[in-house]
Design goal:
The complex is a heterodimer of chains A (about 400) and B (about 190). Chain A is mainly β and about 400 residues long. Chain A has one domain: YVTN repeat-like/Quinoprotein amine dehydrogenase (Methylamine Dehydrogenase, Chain H). Chain A has 2 helices and 32 strands. In chain A, strands 2, 27, 28, 29, 30 and 31 form a 6-stranded mixed beta sheet that branches. Chain A has a 5-stranded mixed beta sheet with strand order 1-26-25-24-23, with no helix packed on it. The longest helix of chain A has 18 residues. The two termini of chain A are about 35 Å apart. Chain B is mostly beta strands and about 190 residues long. Chain B contains 2 helices and 10 strands. In chain B, strand 2 and strand 3 form a beta hairpin. Classes of the chains: A mainly beta (about 400), B mainly beta (about 190). At the A-B interface, loops of A face strand 4, strand 6, strand 7 and strand 10 of B.
Chain lengths: ~400, ~190
Protein backbone atom coordinates (compact mmCIF):
# COMPACT_ATOMS: atom_id res chain seq x y z
CA UNK A 1 0.00 0.00 0.00
CA UNK A 2 1.15 3.49 -0.80
CA UNK A 3 2.51 5.32 2.17
CA UNK A 4 0.49 8.31 3.24
CA UNK A 5 3.49 10.44 3.91
CA UNK A 6 5.90 8.70 1.60
CA UNK A 7 9.15 10.07 0.31
CA UNK A 8 9.01 12.07 -2.89
CA UNK A 9 11.73 13.18 -5.18
CA UNK A 10 14.97 13.92 -3.51
CA UNK A 11 15.28 17.17 -5.41
CA UNK A 12 12.06 18.63 -4.12
CA UNK A 13 12.64 17.35 -0.62
CA UNK A 14 16.10 18.79 -0.51
CA UNK A 15 14.88 22.09 -1.88
CA UNK A 16 12.16 22.33 0.71
CA UNK A 17 14.51 21.38 3.50
CA UNK A 18 17.06 23.88 2.29
CA UNK A 19 14.42 26.56 2.08
CA UNK A 20 13.28 25.72 5.58
CA UNK A 21 16.79 25.97 6.95
CA UNK A 22 17.29 29.21 5.08
CA UNK A 23 14.09 30.54 6.53
CA UNK A 24 15.16 29.70 10.06
CA UNK A 25 18.54 31.29 9.59
CA UNK A 26 17.09 34.26 7.80
CA UNK A 27 14.46 35.00 10.36
CA UNK A 28 16.82 34.79 13.27
CA UNK A 29 15.70 33.59 16.66
CA UNK A 30 12.62 31.42 16.61
CA UNK A 31 10.84 29.37 19.12
CA UNK A 32 11.03 31.90 21.91
CA UNK A 33 8.07 30.60 23.85
CA UNK A 34 5.87 33.14 25.48
CA UNK A 35 2.43 33.07 26.98
CA UNK A 36 1.02 35.59 24.55
CA UNK A 37 0.76 34.84 20.85
CA UNK A 38 2.80 37.38 18.95
CA UNK A 39 3.01 38.34 15.33
CA UNK A 40 6.05 36.97 13.56
CA UNK A 41 7.40 34.34 11.22
CA UNK A 42 6.68 30.66 11.63
CA UNK A 43 9.54 28.22 11.77
CA UNK A 44 8.63 25.08 9.84
CA UNK A 45 10.39 21.79 10.39
CA UNK A 46 9.99 18.36 8.87
CA UNK A 47 8.78 15.73 11.26
CA UNK A 48 5.02 15.62 11.46
CA UNK A 49 4.43 11.89 11.40
CA UNK A 50 0.84 11.91 12.47
CA UNK A 51 -1.29 14.99 11.93
CA UNK A 52 -3.98 15.69 14.50
CA UNK A 53 -7.22 14.01 13.51
CA UNK A 54 -7.94 11.93 10.48
CA UNK A 55 -6.53 12.68 7.04
CA UNK A 56 -7.19 11.48 3.53
CA UNK A 57 -4.83 11.08 0.64
CA UNK A 58 -5.62 9.36 -2.63
CA UNK A 59 -7.47 6.16 -1.76
CA UNK A 60 -6.34 6.07 1.84
CA UNK A 61 -7.82 7.28 5.08
CA UNK A 62 -5.63 7.49 8.15
CA UNK A 63 -7.76 7.83 11.24
CA UNK A 64 -6.89 9.76 14.37
CA UNK A 65 -5.28 6.65 15.88
CA UNK A 66 -3.08 6.05 12.87
CA UNK A 67 -5.16 3.19 11.48
CA UNK A 68 -5.35 3.00 7.69
CA UNK A 69 -8.30 2.15 5.54
CA UNK A 70 -8.61 1.92 1.82
CA UNK A 71 -11.28 4.10 0.31
CA UNK A 72 -13.59 3.00 -2.47
CA UNK A 73 -12.25 5.75 -4.74
CA UNK A 74 -9.61 8.43 -4.61
CA UNK A 75 -10.55 11.67 -2.91
CA UNK A 76 -10.74 14.79 -5.02
CA UNK A 77 -11.83 18.34 -4.49
CA UNK A 78 -11.89 19.06 -8.20
CA UNK A 79 -15.39 20.53 -8.12
CA UNK A 80 -14.87 23.09 -5.40
CA UNK A 81 -11.23 23.45 -4.36
CA UNK A 82 -11.02 24.77 -0.79
CA UNK A 83 -14.53 26.23 -0.78
CA UNK A 84 -15.74 23.07 0.96
CA UNK A 85 -13.89 20.23 2.70
CA UNK A 86 -12.88 17.22 0.63
CA UNK A 87 -13.88 14.85 3.46
CA UNK A 88 -16.23 15.46 6.37
CA UNK A 89 -17.03 13.35 9.43
CA UNK A 90 -20.58 13.04 10.69
CA UNK A 91 -21.66 14.46 14.03
CA UNK A 92 -21.77 11.03 15.67
CA UNK A 93 -18.31 10.32 14.32
CA UNK A 94 -19.32 7.09 12.60
CA UNK A 95 -19.36 8.19 8.97
CA UNK A 96 -17.01 10.03 6.67
CA UNK A 97 -18.37 11.50 3.46
CA UNK A 98 -15.78 12.27 0.80
CA UNK A 99 -15.64 13.74 -2.68
CA UNK A 100 -14.39 11.79 -5.67
CA UNK A 101 -13.87 12.38 -9.37
CA UNK A 102 -14.28 9.73 -12.05
CA UNK A 103 -12.41 10.78 -15.16
CA UNK A 104 -14.25 9.93 -18.37
CA UNK A 105 -11.56 11.32 -20.60
CA UNK A 106 -8.21 12.80 -19.82
CA UNK A 107 -7.74 16.52 -20.27
CA UNK A 108 -4.34 18.03 -20.96
CA UNK A 109 -4.48 21.24 -18.96
CA UNK A 110 -1.84 22.86 -21.14
CA UNK A 111 -3.91 22.50 -24.29
CA UNK A 112 -7.26 23.96 -25.18
CA UNK A 113 -10.35 21.83 -25.49
CA UNK A 114 -10.47 22.42 -29.26
CA UNK A 115 -6.86 21.34 -29.71
CA UNK A 116 -7.72 18.06 -27.99
CA UNK A 117 -10.81 17.49 -30.08
CA UNK A 118 -13.05 18.09 -27.09
CA UNK A 119 -16.28 19.51 -28.43
CA UNK A 120 -18.76 21.53 -26.45
CA UNK A 121 -20.81 19.23 -24.27
CA UNK A 122 -18.27 16.41 -24.32
CA UNK A 123 -18.32 14.29 -21.18
CA UNK A 124 -15.21 14.85 -19.07
CA UNK A 125 -15.96 13.26 -15.71
CA UNK A 126 -18.41 12.48 -12.95
CA UNK A 127 -18.10 13.84 -9.42
CA UNK A 128 -19.54 11.59 -6.75
CA UNK A 129 -19.88 11.52 -3.00
CA UNK A 130 -19.04 8.36 -1.14
CA UNK A 131 -19.47 7.38 2.50
CA UNK A 132 -17.18 5.26 4.63
CA UNK A 133 -18.59 3.91 7.87
CA UNK A 134 -16.70 2.96 11.00
CA UNK A 135 -16.95 -0.71 10.06
CA UNK A 136 -15.04 -0.06 6.87
CA UNK A 137 -18.00 -0.28 4.52
CA UNK A 138 -17.62 2.16 1.64
CA UNK A 139 -20.46 3.03 -0.72
CA UNK A 140 -21.65 5.67 -3.15
CA UNK A 141 -23.84 8.26 -1.48
CA UNK A 142 -24.75 10.03 -4.71
CA UNK A 143 -23.39 10.01 -8.24
CA UNK A 144 -23.13 13.41 -9.87
CA UNK A 145 -22.76 15.08 -6.48
CA UNK A 146 -20.18 17.04 -4.53
CA UNK A 147 -19.57 19.21 -1.43
CA UNK A 148 -21.16 17.64 1.65
CA UNK A 149 -22.06 18.88 5.12
CA UNK A 150 -23.44 16.81 7.99
CA UNK A 151 -26.18 18.18 10.22
CA UNK A 152 -26.06 17.24 13.91
CA UNK A 153 -29.00 14.82 13.51
CA UNK A 154 -27.21 12.84 10.80
CA UNK A 155 -28.79 14.48 7.76
CA UNK A 156 -26.38 15.34 4.99
CA UNK A 157 -26.56 18.23 2.54
CA UNK A 158 -24.83 18.26 -0.82
CA UNK A 159 -25.03 19.51 -4.38
CA UNK A 160 -26.59 17.10 -6.84
CA UNK A 161 -25.94 17.80 -10.50
CA UNK A 162 -28.90 18.13 -12.83
CA UNK A 163 -26.83 16.00 -15.18
CA UNK A 164 -24.40 13.81 -13.26
CA UNK A 165 -21.79 14.19 -15.98
CA UNK A 166 -19.40 17.13 -15.92
CA UNK A 167 -19.08 18.35 -19.48
CA UNK A 168 -17.03 20.76 -21.52
CA UNK A 169 -19.69 23.42 -21.17
CA UNK A 170 -19.97 26.64 -19.22
CA UNK A 171 -21.72 25.60 -15.99
CA UNK A 172 -22.22 22.39 -14.04
CA UNK A 173 -25.67 23.17 -12.73
CA UNK A 174 -27.06 21.44 -9.70
CA UNK A 175 -29.55 21.63 -6.87
CA UNK A 176 -28.86 21.67 -3.16
CA UNK A 177 -30.46 18.66 -1.52
CA UNK A 178 -30.66 17.33 2.03
CA UNK A 179 -30.84 13.63 2.74
CA UNK A 180 -32.24 12.79 6.17
CA UNK A 181 -29.90 9.85 6.50
CA UNK A 182 -27.44 8.05 4.29
CA UNK A 183 -30.18 5.79 2.98
CA UNK A 184 -32.95 8.37 3.04
CA UNK A 185 -34.47 10.28 0.17
CA UNK A 186 -33.24 13.61 -1.12
CA UNK A 187 -35.26 16.73 -0.36
CA UNK A 188 -34.44 19.71 -2.49
CA UNK A 189 -33.58 22.83 -0.52
CA UNK A 190 -32.51 24.92 -3.54
CA UNK A 191 -34.48 24.02 -6.64
CA UNK A 192 -33.26 26.54 -9.17
CA UNK A 193 -30.35 24.91 -11.02
CA UNK A 194 -27.14 26.85 -10.56
CA UNK A 195 -23.50 26.37 -9.77
CA UNK A 196 -23.68 25.75 -6.02
CA UNK A 197 -21.19 24.62 -3.40
CA UNK A 198 -22.39 23.47 0.03
CA UNK A 199 -20.31 24.99 2.82
CA UNK A 200 -21.60 23.92 6.25
CA UNK A 201 -24.51 23.74 8.63
CA UNK A 202 -25.01 26.44 11.22
CA UNK A 203 -27.35 24.62 13.57
CA UNK A 204 -30.37 23.81 11.41
CA UNK A 205 -29.53 26.41 8.81
CA UNK A 206 -27.51 25.49 5.76
CA UNK A 207 -24.88 27.83 4.35
CA UNK A 208 -23.93 27.38 0.73
CA UNK A 209 -22.51 29.32 -2.19
CA UNK A 210 -23.86 30.24 -5.56
CA UNK A 211 -20.94 30.72 -7.94
CA UNK A 212 -21.60 33.27 -10.64
CA UNK A 213 -19.85 34.66 -13.66
CA UNK A 214 -16.24 35.42 -12.98
CA UNK A 215 -16.41 32.96 -10.05
CA UNK A 216 -18.24 35.60 -8.09
CA UNK A 217 -19.38 34.03 -4.84
CA UNK A 218 -22.65 34.73 -3.08
CA UNK A 219 -23.26 33.19 0.31
CA UNK A 220 -26.79 31.92 0.75
CA UNK A 221 -28.52 30.60 3.82
CA UNK A 222 -31.39 28.13 3.73
CA UNK A 223 -33.67 28.14 6.76
CA UNK A 224 -35.45 25.12 5.30
CA UNK A 225 -36.45 23.66 1.94
CA UNK A 226 -36.96 26.54 -0.48
CA UNK A 227 -36.45 29.15 2.24
CA UNK A 228 -33.34 30.73 0.84
CA UNK A 229 -31.94 34.17 1.41
CA UNK A 230 -28.77 35.91 0.45
CA UNK A 231 -26.50 36.44 3.43
CA UNK A 232 -23.60 38.22 1.80
CA UNK A 233 -21.48 38.57 -1.27
CA UNK A 234 -18.23 36.83 -0.58
CA UNK A 235 -17.16 33.70 1.21
CA UNK A 236 -17.18 32.21 4.69
CA UNK A 237 -14.14 32.08 6.90
CA UNK A 238 -15.82 30.19 9.72
CA UNK A 239 -19.04 29.63 11.66
CA UNK A 240 -19.10 30.36 15.37
CA UNK A 241 -19.08 27.34 17.68
CA UNK A 242 -22.71 27.97 18.68
CA UNK A 243 -23.76 28.19 15.04
CA UNK A 244 -25.29 31.64 15.32
CA UNK A 245 -22.67 33.74 13.55
CA UNK A 246 -20.46 33.52 10.52
CA UNK A 247 -17.30 35.41 9.66
CA UNK A 248 -17.72 36.58 6.10
CA UNK A 249 -14.90 37.59 3.79
CA UNK A 250 -15.64 40.33 1.27
CA UNK A 251 -15.48 39.61 -2.43
CA UNK A 252 -12.21 41.53 -2.70
CA UNK A 253 -10.72 39.55 0.22
CA UNK A 254 -9.79 42.63 2.22
CA UNK A 255 -12.48 42.89 4.87
CA UNK A 256 -14.04 40.54 7.38
CA UNK A 257 -17.52 40.91 8.80
CA UNK A 258 -19.12 38.93 11.60
CA UNK A 259 -22.75 38.43 10.68
CA UNK A 260 -25.67 37.10 12.69
CA UNK A 261 -26.95 34.26 10.53
CA UNK A 262 -30.57 34.45 11.68
CA UNK A 263 -30.99 38.13 10.92
CA UNK A 264 -28.18 38.93 8.52
CA UNK A 265 -27.17 41.79 10.81
CA UNK A 266 -23.53 42.78 10.83
CA UNK A 267 -22.03 42.68 14.31
CA UNK A 268 -18.48 43.75 13.60
CA UNK A 269 -16.21 44.59 10.70
CA UNK A 270 -12.52 44.87 10.02
CA UNK A 271 -10.55 46.08 7.01
CA UNK A 272 -7.38 43.99 7.09
CA UNK A 273 -5.52 46.38 4.80
CA UNK A 274 -5.66 49.06 7.49
CA UNK A 275 -5.30 46.77 10.49
CA UNK A 276 -2.10 46.46 12.48
CA UNK A 277 -0.19 44.75 11.08
CA UNK A 278 -1.81 45.30 7.73
CA UNK A 279 -2.50 42.48 5.31
CA UNK A 280 -3.05 42.47 1.57
CA UNK A 281 -5.70 39.82 1.77
CA UNK A 282 -7.18 37.02 3.81
CA UNK A 283 -8.95 33.97 2.42
CA UNK A 284 -11.95 31.78 3.10
CA UNK A 285 -12.35 28.40 4.82
CA UNK A 286 -10.73 28.90 8.21
CA UNK A 287 -11.79 27.91 11.70
CA UNK A 288 -13.47 29.39 14.79
CA UNK A 289 -12.88 28.18 18.36
CA UNK A 290 -13.92 30.14 21.42
CA UNK A 291 -13.40 33.78 20.52
CA UNK A 292 -10.70 33.17 17.95
CA UNK A 293 -10.85 32.82 14.19
CA UNK A 294 -7.99 31.69 11.98
CA UNK A 295 -7.85 32.35 8.25
CA UNK A 296 -5.31 32.05 5.47
CA UNK A 297 -3.60 35.35 4.68
CA UNK A 298 -1.15 36.62 2.12
CA UNK A 299 1.64 36.31 4.66
CA UNK A 300 0.53 32.94 6.01
CA UNK A 301 -2.08 32.93 8.74
CA UNK A 302 -4.21 35.60 10.40
CA UNK A 303 -5.77 35.07 13.82
CA UNK A 304 -8.67 37.30 14.82
CA UNK A 305 -10.22 37.89 18.20
CA UNK A 306 -13.99 38.21 18.18
CA UNK A 307 -16.03 40.08 20.77
CA UNK A 308 -19.79 40.57 20.97
CA UNK A 309 -19.50 43.59 18.71
CA UNK A 310 -15.81 43.77 17.95
CA UNK A 311 -13.30 42.12 15.70
CA UNK A 312 -9.57 42.67 15.85
CA UNK A 313 -6.52 41.18 14.23
CA UNK A 314 -4.66 39.52 17.07
CA UNK A 315 -1.78 37.84 15.33
CA UNK A 316 -0.23 37.42 11.91
CA UNK A 317 1.94 34.38 11.34
CA UNK A 318 4.38 34.50 8.45
CA UNK A 319 5.36 31.60 6.27
CA UNK A 320 8.49 31.62 4.16
CA UNK A 321 7.25 32.52 0.68
CA UNK A 322 10.06 30.60 -0.99
CA UNK A 323 9.04 27.47 0.83
CA UNK A 324 5.27 27.95 0.61
CA UNK A 325 4.63 30.36 -2.26
CA UNK A 326 0.89 29.75 -2.23
CA UNK A 327 0.59 29.92 1.56
CA UNK A 328 -1.78 27.62 3.40
CA UNK A 329 -5.39 26.61 2.99
CA UNK A 330 -8.18 25.43 5.28
CA UNK A 331 -6.44 26.14 8.60
CA UNK A 332 -8.20 24.55 11.58
CA UNK A 333 -7.78 24.99 15.28
CA UNK A 334 -7.09 21.54 16.61
CA UNK A 335 -7.29 22.30 20.32
CA UNK A 336 -10.00 23.95 22.35
CA UNK A 337 -7.74 26.77 23.49
CA UNK A 338 -7.09 27.87 19.92
CA UNK A 339 -3.33 27.64 20.10
CA UNK A 340 -2.71 24.71 17.78
CA UNK A 341 -3.48 25.11 14.09
CA UNK A 342 -3.36 22.48 11.36
CA UNK A 343 -3.49 23.47 7.70
CA UNK A 344 -2.82 22.30 4.17
CA UNK A 345 -0.05 23.87 2.16
CA UNK A 346 -0.01 23.41 -1.59
CA UNK A 347 3.11 24.23 -3.53
CA UNK A 348 2.47 24.88 -7.23
CA UNK A 349 4.54 23.15 -9.91
CA UNK A 350 7.92 24.73 -10.56
CA UNK A 351 10.99 23.91 -12.58
CA UNK A 352 9.56 20.75 -14.02
CA UNK A 353 8.35 19.19 -10.78
CA UNK A 354 4.67 18.71 -10.13
CA UNK A 355 2.64 20.43 -7.47
CA UNK A 356 2.84 18.99 -3.97
CA UNK A 357 0.89 19.24 -0.74
CA UNK A 358 1.91 19.22 2.90
CA UNK A 359 0.03 19.23 6.14
CA UNK A 360 1.31 21.57 8.80
CA UNK A 361 0.66 21.58 12.52
CA UNK A 362 1.63 24.85 14.14
CA UNK A 363 1.90 26.18 17.66
CA UNK A 364 0.96 29.81 17.33
CA UNK A 365 2.47 30.76 20.69
CA UNK A 366 5.85 29.19 19.99
CA UNK A 367 5.49 30.09 16.30
CA UNK A 368 6.76 26.70 15.21
CA UNK A 369 5.30 24.19 12.81
CA UNK A 370 5.95 20.63 11.91
CA UNK A 371 5.11 19.45 8.44
CA UNK A 372 4.55 16.11 6.78
CA UNK A 373 6.52 14.81 3.86
CA UNK A 374 5.28 16.09 0.53
CA UNK A 375 2.51 14.31 -1.32
CA UNK A 376 1.59 14.84 -4.98
CA UNK A 377 -1.01 17.59 -5.12
CA UNK A 378 -3.34 15.39 -7.16
CA UNK A 379 -3.55 13.02 -4.18
CA UNK A 380 -5.51 15.67 -2.25
CA UNK A 381 -3.76 15.24 1.10
CA UNK A 382 -6.27 16.90 3.40
CA UNK A 383 -7.58 16.84 6.95
CA UNK A 384 -10.95 15.24 7.47
CA UNK A 385 -13.20 18.04 8.63
CA UNK A 386 -14.56 16.97 12.01
CA UNK A 387 -16.29 20.22 12.92
CA UNK A 388 -19.69 18.52 12.96
CA UNK A 389 -18.35 15.79 15.24
CA UNK A 390 -16.81 18.24 17.67
CA UNK A 391 -19.89 20.39 17.80
CA UNK A 392 -22.23 17.42 17.87
CA UNK A 393 -20.47 16.19 20.95
CA UNK A 394 -20.78 19.44 22.84
CA UNK B 1 11.99 34.48 -26.52
CA UNK B 2 9.01 33.10 -24.67
CA UNK B 3 6.72 34.92 -27.03
CA UNK B 4 8.50 33.36 -30.00
CA UNK B 5 8.03 29.91 -28.53
CA UNK B 6 4.39 30.55 -27.93
CA UNK B 7 3.95 31.84 -31.45
CA UNK B 8 5.48 28.65 -32.80
CA UNK B 9 3.13 26.66 -30.62
CA UNK B 10 0.09 28.55 -31.75
CA UNK B 11 0.98 28.16 -35.38
CA UNK B 12 1.30 24.44 -34.85
CA UNK B 13 -2.02 24.36 -33.09
CA UNK B 14 -3.79 26.62 -35.55
CA UNK B 15 -4.81 23.73 -37.74
CA UNK B 16 -6.83 22.36 -34.85
CA UNK B 17 -8.46 25.64 -34.01
CA UNK B 18 -12.11 26.28 -34.63
CA UNK B 19 -12.26 28.51 -37.71
CA UNK B 20 -13.32 32.01 -36.79
CA UNK B 21 -13.45 33.65 -40.16
CA UNK B 22 -12.07 32.36 -43.41
CA UNK B 23 -10.66 35.76 -44.35
CA UNK B 24 -9.27 36.53 -40.92
CA UNK B 25 -5.73 36.66 -39.73
CA UNK B 26 -4.98 34.28 -36.93
CA UNK B 27 -5.19 36.38 -33.76
CA UNK B 28 -4.83 35.34 -30.16
CA UNK B 29 -4.05 36.71 -26.71
CA UNK B 30 -1.26 35.85 -24.32
CA UNK B 31 -1.34 36.53 -20.60
CA UNK B 32 1.96 36.25 -18.77
CA UNK B 33 1.38 35.86 -15.03
CA UNK B 34 3.75 38.10 -13.14
CA UNK B 35 1.67 39.48 -10.31
CA UNK B 36 -2.01 39.68 -9.52
CA UNK B 37 -2.09 43.41 -10.23
CA UNK B 38 0.45 43.70 -13.02
CA UNK B 39 0.74 41.11 -15.74
CA UNK B 40 1.02 41.81 -19.46
CA UNK B 41 -1.83 40.87 -21.78
CA UNK B 42 -0.65 40.73 -25.39
CA UNK B 43 -2.61 40.43 -28.58
CA UNK B 44 -0.73 38.77 -31.42
CA UNK B 45 -1.66 38.47 -35.08
CA UNK B 46 -0.02 36.24 -37.61
CA UNK B 47 -0.16 37.89 -41.03
CA UNK B 48 1.70 35.05 -42.68
CA UNK B 49 5.25 34.69 -43.82
CA UNK B 50 6.50 34.90 -40.29
CA UNK B 51 5.13 38.42 -39.87
CA UNK B 52 3.54 38.65 -36.45
CA UNK B 53 2.54 41.89 -34.76
CA UNK B 54 1.72 42.38 -31.11
CA UNK B 55 0.32 44.96 -28.75
CA UNK B 56 0.48 44.71 -24.95
CA UNK B 57 -1.52 46.14 -22.08
CA UNK B 58 -1.35 45.89 -18.33
CA UNK B 59 -3.80 43.35 -16.88
CA UNK B 60 -4.47 41.54 -13.63
CA UNK B 61 -5.93 38.26 -12.41
CA UNK B 62 -6.93 36.82 -9.06
CA UNK B 63 -5.93 37.84 -5.56
CA UNK B 64 -3.50 35.02 -4.88
CA UNK B 65 -0.98 33.26 -7.11
CA UNK B 66 -2.45 29.82 -6.45
CA UNK B 67 -4.39 28.87 -9.58
CA UNK B 68 -6.15 26.06 -7.70
CA UNK B 69 -7.80 28.46 -5.27
CA UNK B 70 -11.34 28.83 -6.65
CA UNK B 71 -12.63 32.41 -6.68
CA UNK B 72 -9.32 33.64 -5.26
CA UNK B 73 -6.31 32.57 -7.30
CA UNK B 74 -5.22 33.72 -10.73
CA UNK B 75 -6.20 31.62 -13.71
CA UNK B 76 -4.34 28.41 -14.59
CA UNK B 77 -1.72 28.21 -17.31
CA UNK B 78 -2.36 26.76 -20.75
CA UNK B 79 -4.47 27.42 -23.81
CA UNK B 80 -8.08 28.52 -23.57
CA UNK B 81 -10.78 28.50 -26.22
CA UNK B 82 -13.18 31.40 -26.52
CA UNK B 83 -16.78 30.47 -25.77
CA UNK B 84 -18.34 33.80 -26.63
CA UNK B 85 -17.96 37.53 -26.87
CA UNK B 86 -20.49 40.22 -26.02
CA UNK B 87 -20.46 43.99 -26.22
CA UNK B 88 -23.25 44.63 -23.75
CA UNK B 89 -23.13 41.68 -21.41
CA UNK B 90 -25.48 42.09 -18.49
CA UNK B 91 -24.64 39.50 -15.88
CA UNK B 92 -22.71 39.95 -12.67
CA UNK B 93 -20.01 41.21 -14.98
CA UNK B 94 -21.04 43.62 -17.68
CA UNK B 95 -20.16 45.35 -20.90
CA UNK B 96 -17.48 44.10 -23.26
CA UNK B 97 -16.51 40.57 -22.23
CA UNK B 98 -14.70 37.54 -23.65
CA UNK B 99 -15.89 34.24 -22.17
CA UNK B 100 -13.09 31.70 -21.67
CA UNK B 101 -13.38 27.92 -21.64
CA UNK B 102 -13.05 26.06 -18.34
CA UNK B 103 -9.65 24.81 -17.23
CA UNK B 104 -8.37 22.39 -14.60
CA UNK B 105 -5.50 23.67 -12.50
CA UNK B 106 -2.49 21.61 -11.46
CA UNK B 107 -4.25 19.61 -8.76
CA UNK B 108 -7.33 18.96 -10.90
CA UNK B 109 -9.61 21.67 -9.53
CA UNK B 110 -11.82 23.08 -12.25
CA UNK B 111 -11.79 26.82 -12.75
CA UNK B 112 -14.86 28.04 -14.57
CA UNK B 113 -16.87 31.05 -15.67
CA UNK B 114 -13.74 33.09 -16.34
CA UNK B 115 -13.61 36.09 -18.66
CA UNK B 116 -11.45 38.85 -19.99
CA UNK B 117 -13.30 41.97 -18.94
CA UNK B 118 -13.10 45.24 -17.03
CA UNK B 119 -15.40 47.24 -14.78
CA UNK B 120 -18.12 48.92 -16.79
CA UNK B 121 -21.87 48.83 -17.17
CA UNK B 122 -23.76 46.80 -19.74
CA UNK B 123 -24.00 49.98 -21.78
CA UNK B 124 -20.18 50.32 -21.61
CA UNK B 125 -20.42 53.23 -19.20
CA UNK B 126 -19.14 53.89 -15.72
CA UNK B 127 -21.33 53.67 -12.61
CA UNK B 128 -19.56 55.13 -9.59
CA UNK B 129 -22.19 55.90 -6.96
CA UNK B 130 -20.02 55.57 -3.85
CA UNK B 131 -16.65 56.67 -2.60
CA UNK B 132 -15.70 53.03 -2.25
CA UNK B 133 -14.95 50.25 -4.72
CA UNK B 134 -17.91 50.08 -7.09
CA UNK B 135 -18.09 46.96 -9.26
CA UNK B 136 -18.89 48.78 -12.49
CA UNK B 137 -16.49 51.65 -12.00
CA UNK B 138 -12.78 51.62 -12.70
CA UNK B 139 -11.32 53.50 -9.74
CA UNK B 140 -7.68 52.52 -10.07
CA UNK B 141 -5.01 49.90 -9.79
CA UNK B 142 -6.82 47.84 -7.18
CA UNK B 143 -9.47 47.04 -9.78
CA UNK B 144 -7.01 44.76 -11.54
CA UNK B 145 -7.82 42.23 -8.78
CA UNK B 146 -10.38 39.59 -9.66
CA UNK B 147 -11.61 36.21 -8.53
CA UNK B 148 -9.66 34.69 -11.41
CA UNK B 149 -10.70 36.60 -14.54
CA UNK B 150 -8.24 38.61 -16.60
CA UNK B 151 -9.04 42.28 -16.10
CA UNK B 152 -7.88 45.29 -18.07
CA UNK B 153 -8.31 48.97 -17.35
CA UNK B 154 -11.40 50.91 -18.26
CA UNK B 155 -9.67 54.22 -17.53
CA UNK B 156 -8.64 56.75 -20.15
CA UNK B 157 -9.79 57.33 -23.68
CA UNK B 158 -9.43 55.07 -25.44
CA UNK B 159 -9.37 52.66 -22.54
CA UNK B 160 -7.32 49.48 -22.61
CA UNK B 161 -10.59 47.57 -22.70
CA UNK B 162 -11.58 49.36 -25.86
CA UNK B 163 -8.19 48.70 -27.42
CA UNK B 164 -8.40 45.03 -26.50
CA UNK B 165 -11.91 44.81 -27.87
CA UNK B 166 -11.29 46.75 -31.06
CA UNK B 167 -7.95 45.07 -31.55
CA UNK B 168 -9.60 41.66 -31.48
CA UNK B 169 -12.16 42.59 -34.10
CA UNK B 170 -9.88 44.49 -36.45
CA UNK B 171 -7.00 42.05 -36.33
CA UNK B 172 -8.98 38.84 -36.49
CA UNK B 173 -11.65 40.11 -38.83
CA UNK B 174 -14.08 38.27 -36.57
CA UNK B 175 -16.98 40.54 -35.73
CA UNK B 176 -19.25 37.91 -34.23
CA UNK B 177 -21.01 38.45 -30.94
CA UNK B 178 -22.83 36.06 -28.64
CA UNK B 179 -21.97 32.44 -28.00
CA UNK B 180 -19.53 30.97 -30.49
CA UNK B 181 -16.20 29.20 -30.41
CA UNK B 182 -12.69 30.25 -31.29
CA UNK B 183 -9.94 27.76 -30.67
CA UNK B 184 -6.73 28.69 -28.89
CA UNK B 185 -7.91 32.20 -28.09
CA UNK B 186 -5.79 32.83 -24.99
CA UNK B 187 -2.53 31.39 -23.79
CA UNK B 188 -1.63 31.80 -20.12
CA UNK B 189 1.92 31.26 -18.99
CA UNK B 190 4.00 31.97 -15.90
Amino acid sequence: MKRIFGARTAAVGAAILAAGVAAVVGFGVFGAHGAVPRTGPLSVHVGLKKPPGAVVRGRTLVDEKGGRRELGAAVSGSMMGPLSPVAVRSSNGELIAYNTWQELRSVDADRSFSAQGIKEGAALGVPSLRVLDDQGKDSVLARGAYSAAWRRDGAIAFVRGVDPVFRASPTYAGQVVVRESVHGRDVSWADVPAHYVVYAWAGDRLLFYRIGLGEKTEMLVADGPGKIRSLAEGTAIAISPDGTRVAVLSEDATSVRVVDIATGREQSWLDVTTATPSLRWVAYSGSWVGDHIVAPANTGLAVFQVGPDSLKLEQVLGLDQAQFPAGVQEPRFVDDSGNEIAASADVPPANGSGGVSFLLECDRVARTCERTEAAPAKDWLRQVDDTATRRGGQ
Amino acid sequence: MKMRGAITAVLAAAALAIPANASAYRTWFEFTRQSNLWSPLTIATDYGGGFVTTQTWRAGSGTSTDACWVAHGWLPTGWYDLWGHWNNYDGTIKGRVFYLSNKPCWNGTWRSELFIHSEETAAQGQYCPTAYDDPYCWEGDYDYHSNGCVKVSRAGNPSDLRLVHDGWHSRSGDYRHGSFGVGNFLYVRG
